[in-house]
Write a structure and sequence with these properties.
binds magnesium ion, binds adenosine-5'-diphosphate, globular, three-stranded antiparallel sheet, T-fold, about 325 residues, 2 domains
Length: about 325
């Protein structure tokens, strides 16, 4: 995703969180750097809290315990929402694929890329990890605020940036209800308010097989969020086959029925999780995506492997420019 046009009057901030650059443009009556600092601090808190490889994190505790684990309210509600989205997408979005993601090596991607230590897991390793994975294994005890993963590993990578953007928006608005601008985390943008408080932001959707900056579509937003999941972000190629970080829970292999999926939603968590799900469902299950996703507030643009563009009925609303 790429925001185009001049942006005078905005203050710019940047930090490296969630393995990607988080960039923000803010215009506000409150000192913008105060807002930016608070947002980056919150995002770093979430990155640490939900890092399954950090031994102090709640996910590490959940994933490595055989028993019920007591969790705080935020963890309970985030995991509860993740499981709900898994059910709503018939398991295409699955927050309990941690073992498979670990097996494929997409968790420590940047380090592995530097060392060139990628390998394709064997079919039996994949089957073994898949049999221990899946959101249906995760149980929640709402009365006692406990979660039990039953051997599955939770990985919230498919919605954590969306949740962080939701918190970022709340924080910005607590400082100054009328602030405007946007926050960008790699493949997702959260609008804080219309450009110059007046017009829509112009956002390019990247051509999945083009260079950065080459667009396949343009959307216009004055509020809400847009997220793109693609097979070009974290991948390696062996014998001309592309292996990337979005896994099809049904097979345990990278999903290959799409090259990118873009979701627009007022809710950044929906945009993030449903874009991952739309990618997994791909062109084969497009009818499901097209009919069901808008009910959850997700409008979708799917780019198929043959570079055909498929849209939900209302996606075109966002393709209309301001006059
Ligand atoms: P990005 O990381 O670019 O934001 P996504 O939002 O699509 O892209 O999230 C991809 C991440 O989600 C993966 O790196 C992995 O941690 C996790 N993941 C992979 N496959 C799935 C899936 N089917 N459902 C939910 N999460 C997934
Ligand atoms: Mg996602
Ligand atoms: Mg994402």
């Amino acid at each position: 995703l790429f925001v185009s046009g001049k942006t005078g009057q905005y203050s710019d901030f940047e930090d490296y969180i969630f393995g990607t650059y988080v960039r923000m443009k803010i215009s506000s009556r409150v000192n913008p750097s105060t807002i930016a600092k608070a947002i980056f601090a919150e995002m770093k808190r979430l990155e640490k809290k939900f890092d399954p490889y950090d031994k102090a994190s709640v996910l590490y505790k959940l994933n490595h315990s055989e028993d019920w684990v007591e969790v705080d309210d935020e963890t309970l509600s985030v995991i509860d929402l993740a499981l709900k989205i898994a059910r709503d997408t018939e398991g295409a979005f699955d927050p309990a694929l941690g073992r498979l993601i670990d097996l494929w090596g997409f968790s420590k991607f940047t380090e592995r890329q530097a060392n060139g230590t990628f390998n394709i897991p064997s079919a039996s390793e994949i089957a073994e990890a898949a049999s221990k994975s899946g959101y249906q294994k995760v149980a929640i005890d709402y009365v006692n605020k406990k979660i039990r993963t039953n051997g599955a590993w939770i990985d919230l990578g498919g919605m954590l940036k969306g949740y962080a953007l939701k918190r970022a928006y709340q924080i910005a608005k607590e400082f100054d209800k009328s602030c405007h601008g946007f926050i960008e985390t790699g493949g997702q943008i959260m609008i804080l308010g219309p450009k110059y408080n007046r017009t829509k932001w112009v956002i390019g959707v990247r051509d999945p097989r083009g260079q950065p900056g080459e667009n396949i579509d343009i959307v216009y937003l004055s509020e809400g969020s847009v997220a793109t999941s693609g097979d070009y972000e974290r991948f390696f190629i062996v014998d001309n086959v592309r292996y990337h970080h979005i896994l099809d829970p049904r097979t345990g292999y990278p999903a290959n029925k799409a090259v990118s999926a873009t979701v627009i939603s007022n809710d950044p968590v929906i945009a993030d999780a449903f874009s991952t799900a739309a990618f997994v469902l791909g062109e084969d299950r497009w009818l499901f995506t097209r009919t069901v996703f808008p009910k959850y507030g997700a409008e979708v643009l799917l780019v198929t492997p043959k570079k055909q563009l498929l849209r939900t009925d209302n996606f075109k609303i966002y393709e209309i420019a301001d006059r």
